[in-house]
């Protein structure tokens, strides 16, 4: 029996039951002497049949074989290698040929003679939630509709479907007692940490949580599997840099130049900054080579191809799952209006597809609300830019006293960059929380008809802001820092302070590592600690006195499930980190892979063990998240092309080798300009391709032409190859 339990703490409760639902109530006393009322709702057979047709649920006609095999399993079979990732999972759900449910044709559906088992727990909970979500309890114009509004206002404590028994298993002499309930199967064969290397039982996940949850875990597993080759190649590229670091001609010239190059102060002489010797940054020059050598150019091209190919193959996997789970065309054909929309919509209009009169909202008014929301998004993004300027000023102010002391001069830039990145990360995480709540309220106010439209608009708002929030400081370092510094006697000032100097890929790698890895650590810590703290506080607050608790009492002590939005957002932002800026940090896919192995088990444990069961929803694919991933993949091609051309030393060294010396002898001296006469107290050098008057040299303009040509060739070549790959995938699909 599938039950939605509605819990309330009060002395008196009045429940109106419509649609012939069965209701039972139970009163339990908690440790603080408050009474907790559990109202258990169960829909009768006529109600289930009525709403199954109303919701266009799929009904089974005939069972058929369910062959499920993935690409790694096929490869290992061809190579005749043992597959340690495969494991036989008991109680595998059957696969059926289905069609939309119709009461008039009930006798034609498989298993319809048994009223108790025909509708599964997932279907029953969906029907009950639909009834509860559309029930009017007050004035419709004020939005006094649905169980969610009552829970929000504190009338009820919560409303949730029940788990199918406990997840803990009784064992005798190390053996599991059978049979296992569906929740125990998921825990034993999926959610445990010991199963980190096993295939995910996607059919079991779908049967217990619904298609929307299952498609997320299918995508996360597919993405994690594809990270493995990217991580291996990235590690090899990094190791190549380690093994060839000591033969780097640039670092050798910097380290052997003691006394040869007196460098101009990195801040104004008037505030006490001193001249310094280029050999002071010998260690920094050696480490910089790890992130800026020929291998990183190859890796940028590799990851650009990898990202496009990954998305093409996910399209195939997604279509296969949608067909396998009978969700093809679900969004266009079957999705009904959101319960909140139906309750608050002022008009009824005929649906051109179904012919049924459905709630509607004027498009002109919605467009005005969307425009107002866009204005608020731009306001919040402006706030992010202000914080970035504040971090830039912080780095300048921190670096000044460090440059004044010879002890810290060599590490001054690194200290300023890393501490600035940590400050930036704290601001980013704080702004994220504030904006997500604001975006949810804005999207609710815009009155979108279906849940898919609501989710897509919320996703778009949050991602646009988070894109600016997380990536803007990295884009600044990659493409703007050091571009507008000027030269001695003609420096660019911000609030009477000299703009930041020095630009190379190691600074970008530092910023990327701090933000990406720091975000992963914070998110994983939150996913481990926050649910446990919430559960501890919730159990303490609602502690029930009974020793032997019922299923609804056990589930009541679990915390609410917050859905998939944060999970998708975390992974999509990670995808941006490992593709858009991979030329600067080849180890990014490796850290992402390690994180995702942990993430899958954390999410699995959260859904199975730590949170209340979520109401199952259908989904055909990952929705607007795929369009965002596709946009990031194309942006990665552009970004990596510009990184190699304008931030890396690859092209300047290549042009110097072609025109002057293939072994790069004298390259350091060639790239250091002399300060214009009379502008500094002492003669000094600074980084730049300028003559003594401060004008750009002919080599600078030739280099600029080479850089622009490289960007054009890089982007067109990868785009052309991606189109060829897409056509191949399309032909294979046809």
Explain this structure to me?
The protein contains 23 helices and 18 strands. By secondary structure, it is of the alpha+beta class. The strands form 8 sheets. It has a 4-stranded antiparallel beta sheet. Strand 15 and strand 16 (497-498) form a beta hairpin. It is elongated and about 95 Å long. Residues 9-20 have low confidence and may be disordered.
Concise structural overview:
With 734 residues, the chain is α+β, with helices and mostly antiparallel strands. It is 55% helix and 10% strand. Residues 9-20 have low confidence and may be disordered.
Distance between the termini: 43 Å
Structural class, from helix and strand content?
alpha+beta
Major beta-sheet overview: 4 strands, antiparallel
Spans of 5+ residues with little confidence (pLDDT < 50)?
9-20
Mean pLDDT: 80
Q: What's the Cα radius of gyration?
A: 31 Å
Give the number of DSSP strands: 18
What is the percent of helical residues?
55-70%
Strand arrangement across the biggest beta sheet: 2-3-1-6
**Overall 3D geometry?**
elongated
Kindly estimate the percentage of residues that lie in beta strands according to DSSP.
5-15%
How many DSSP helices?
A: 23
């Amino acid at each position: 029996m599938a039950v939605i339990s509605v819990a309330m703490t009060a002395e008196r409760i009045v429940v109106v039951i419509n649609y012939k639902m069965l209701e039972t109530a139970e009163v339990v006393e908690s440790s603080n002497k408050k009474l907790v009322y559990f109202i258990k709702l169960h829909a009768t057979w006529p109600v289930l049949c009525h709403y199954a047709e109303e919701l266009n649920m799929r009904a089974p006609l005939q069972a058929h074989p369910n062959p499920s095999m993935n690409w790694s399993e096929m490869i290992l079979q061809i190579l005749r290698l043992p597959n340690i990732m495969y494991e036989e999972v008991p109680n595998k759900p059957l696969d059926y040929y289905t069609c939309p449910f119709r009461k008039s044709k009930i006798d034609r559906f498989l298993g319809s003679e048994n009223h108790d088992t025909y509708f599964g727990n997932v279907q029953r909970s969906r029907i009950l939630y639909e009834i509860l979500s559309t029930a009017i309890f007050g004035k419709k114009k004020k939005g006094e509709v649905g169980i969610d509004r009552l829970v929000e206002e504190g009338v009820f404590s919560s409303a949730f479907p029940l788990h199918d028994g406990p997840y803990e298993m009784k064992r005798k002499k190390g053996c599991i007692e059978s049979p296992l309930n569906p929740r125990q199967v998921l825990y034993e064969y999926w959610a445990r940490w010991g199963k980190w290397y096993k295939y995910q039982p996607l059919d079991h996940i779908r049967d217990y949580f619904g298609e929307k949850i299952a498609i997320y875990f299918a995508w996360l597993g597919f993405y994690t599997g594809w990270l493995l080759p990217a991580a291996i190649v990235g590690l090899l590229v990094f190791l190549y840099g380690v093994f060839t670091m000591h033969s780097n001609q640039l670092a050798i010239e910097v380290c052997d130049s003691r006394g040869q190059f007196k460098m101009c102060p990195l801040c104004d002489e008037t505030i006490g900054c001193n001249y310094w010797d280029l050999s002071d940054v010998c260690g920094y020059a050696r480490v910089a080579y790890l992130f800026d050598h020929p291998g990183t150019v190859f890796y940028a091209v590799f990851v650009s191809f990898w990202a496009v190919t990954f998305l093409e193959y996910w399209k195939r996997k997604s279509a296969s799952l949608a067909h396998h789970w009978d969700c093809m065309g679900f969004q266009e054909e079957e999705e009904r209006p959101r319960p909140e929309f139906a309750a608050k919509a002022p008009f009824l209009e005929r649906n051109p597809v179904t012919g049924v009169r459905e709630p509607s909202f004027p498009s002109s008014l919605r467009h005005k609300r969307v425009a107002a929301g866009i204005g608020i998004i731009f306001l919040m993004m402006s706030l992010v830019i202000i914080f970035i300027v504040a971090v830039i000023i912080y780095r300048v102010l921190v670096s000044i006293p460090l440059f004044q002391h010879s002890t810290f001069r060599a590490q001054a830039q690194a200290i300023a960059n890393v501490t600035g990145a940590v400050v930036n990360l704290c601001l980013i995480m704080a702004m994220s929380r504030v904006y997500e709540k604001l975006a949810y309220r804005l999207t609710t106010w815009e009155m979108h008809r279906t849940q898919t439209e609501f989710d897509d608009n919320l996703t778009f708002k949050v991602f646009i802001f988070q894109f600016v929030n997380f990536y803007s400081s990295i884009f600044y370092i990659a493409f703007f820092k050091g571009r507008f510094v000027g030269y001695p006697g003609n420096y660019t000032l911000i609030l009477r302070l000299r703009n930041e100097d020095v630009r190379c890929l190691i600074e970008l790698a530092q910023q990327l590592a701090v933000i990406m890895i720091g975000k992963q650590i914070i998110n994983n810590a939150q996913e481990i600690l926050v649910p446990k703290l919430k559960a501890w506080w919730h159990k303490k607050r609602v502690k029930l006195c009974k020793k032997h608790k019922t299923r609804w009492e056990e589930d009541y002590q679990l915390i609410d499930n917050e859905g998939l939005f944060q999970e998708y957002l975390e992974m999509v932002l990670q995808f941006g980190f490992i593709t858009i800026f991979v030329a600067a940090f080849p180890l990014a896919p490796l850290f992402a892979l390690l994180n995702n192995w942990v993430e899958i088990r954390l999410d699995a444990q959260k859904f199975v063990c730590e949170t209340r069961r979520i109401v199952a929803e259908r989904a055909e694919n990952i929705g607007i998240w795929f369009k965002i991933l596709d946009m990031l993949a194309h942006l990665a091609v552009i970004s990596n092309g510009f990184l190699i051309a304008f931030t890396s030393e690859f092209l300047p060294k290549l042009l110097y080798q072609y025109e002057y010396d293939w072994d790069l002898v004298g390259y350091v001296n060639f790239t250091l300009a002399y300060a214009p006469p009379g502008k500094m107290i002492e003669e000094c050098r600074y980084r730049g391709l300028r003559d003594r008057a401060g004008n750009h040299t002919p080599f600078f303009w030739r280099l600029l032409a080479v850089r622009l040509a490289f960007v054009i060739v890089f982007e067109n070549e990868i785009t052309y190859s991606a189109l060829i790959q897409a056509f191949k995938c399309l032909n294979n699909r046809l």
